[in-house]
Amino acid sequence: MFNYTAQNQLEIFDFKTEFQSKLDPNNRWVKMAKLLDWDRLAEVYSQNFSSTMGAKGIDARIIIGALIIKHIEAKDDRGTIDAIKENPYMQFFLGFDHFSSEAVFDPSLFVHIRKRLCNGDFDKMNQVIIAQALNLNEKDKTKEERKNTDEDNFSHNDSSHEPTNKGKLQMDATIADAHIKFPTDLSLLNDSREKSEKLIDRLCLSLRLPKPRTYRREARKKWLNLSKSKKNSFKQIQNGIKQQLNYLKRNIKSIDKILEDNQLSLCCFDKKEYKYLLVIKELHRQQLEMFQEKKHTVSNRIVSIHQPHIRPMVRGKQGKKVEFGAKINVSLQ
Predict the structure, then answer these.
(1) How many separate domains does the chain show?
(2) Strands 170-177 and 320-332, sheet pairing
(3) Long-range contacts: 104-109, Cβ < 8 Å, 24+?
(4) Both 124 and 220 in a single domain?
(5) What is the mean pLDDT of residues 203-232?
(6) Cα separation, 150 vs 144, whole angstroms
(7) In this structure, is residue 166 part of a structural domain?
(8) Which tens digits make up the pLDDT trace of 22-72?
(9) Each residue of 302-314: pLDDT tens digit?
(10) DSSP characters for 177-232?
(11) What is the mean pLDDT of the chain?
């Protein structure tokens, strides 16, 4: 027989415990007990019972509340009953008016409850809970809209008292220092050449193609001869730049030829590798332009292939005339 006592939620201060302390009104179980529509949930649960036949059953709120606790806490049948037995807030959630250390019902009853309730019953209960939550959200939205309307009206009334802009805004350019090695034309070209060789190896390995000639050993040997030398003349540096430009140009042509001959070869690169390819091509263009026109500056000059957004900035500091990093503007008040 179905059993349910329709009643208003018990006031939290009337809940009797064996301890001197009172329940916290901000506890989640206390708040949830006041928010749920127990009458509608009990109505769904009562559809599986007879109002005249059978023995009087356990109160529907206790059953429904125990199911909610079980799923929220993700406990098994015995664990749910033990948690309710030990927690006065859960007992308040189930509708008790006092704390009890006895089990609300035997854990095996959960098996019969699951047999009695079908998926449709659980769906109906979920719809009741969701509908209640939506109504609460609509009320909150209405309150917020009213509050925003009042604030807009207040700001509109006081618009005449808004202060006007005064003075001048001063901006100062500075830089967020990036810890990179000091870039030289030779070192940048060497890094780009080595990275292009790795890209060629990746393409050939993925597509199972023979590796094109890159002269990597010869190029590295010439680079080491220049980098290890304590003093290099201007002519030696220019010759080294020319050599590295030619090696890098050859590698870029090899990559472009592989990409042109194989339509899906670009898929062999991930996002990071494809970015490296674009940076290497742009760096080769910049270095070739400076070498041919015999200049040392170019717009948006790349000083690191790993962080192409970094830019040089002449600071004039003692011991560190140039800093490298992302440029930022700072306002002074």
Answers:
(1) 2
(2) antiparallel
(3) 104/58, 104/62, 104/66, 105/58, 105/62, 105/66, 105/81, 106/81, 107/77, 107/78, 107/80, 107/81, 108/77, 109/58
(4) no
(5) 91
(6) 10
(7) no
(8) 778 888 888 888 888 888 888 887 777 776 777 777 888 888 888 888 888
(9) 999 998 888 887 7
(10) E---PPP-HHHHHHHHHHHHHHHHHHHHHHHT-PPPP--HHHHHHHHHHHHH-S--
(11) 81
Range of the domain at 204: 185-309
pLDDT band per the 50, 70, 90 thresholds, residue 279: very high
User: For the chain, how far is it from start to end, CA to CA, in angstroms?
Assistant: 78
Domain stop point among 133, 161, 196: 133
Question: 295 lies in a domain?
Answer: yes
Task: Say if 193 falls within a structural domain.
Answer: yes
Contact 179, 186 (CB under 8 A): no
> Could you say which DSSP state residue 162 is in?
P
Place of tokens 């859960």: 90
Taking the model in full, what pTM does it have? Answer: 0.47
Assigned domain for 213 exists: yes
Q: How far apart are CA 91 and CA 214, in angstroms?
A: 78
Give yes or no: residues 214 and 289 share one domain: yes
Percent of the chain clearing pLDDT 70 (strictly above):
82
Instruction: From 101, 133, 165, give the residue that closes a domain.
Output: 133
Residues paired with residue 326 on neighbouring β-strands, in sequence order: 176
Q: What is the pLDDT of residue 145?
A: 63
Cα–Cα distance measured from residue 331 to residue 333, given in angstroms and rounded to the nearest whole number: 7
> Given this model, what pLDDT does residue 13 score?
58
Of the listed ranges 127-141, 191-205, 227-241, 272-286, the least confidently predicted one is: 127-141
Q: In what order do the strands lie in the sheet with 311-317?
A: 170-177, 320-332, 311-317
Closest listed residue to residue 173, CA positions, set 311, 307, 321: 311
Q: Binning pLDDT at 50, 70 and 90, where does residue 186 land?
A: very high
Asked if 205 and 283 sit in the same domain, the reply is: yes
In this structure, is the dihedral angle defined by the CA atoms of residues 203, 209, 213 and 219, taken in order, positive or negative? Answer: positive
* Cα–Cα dist 53/2, whole Å: 9
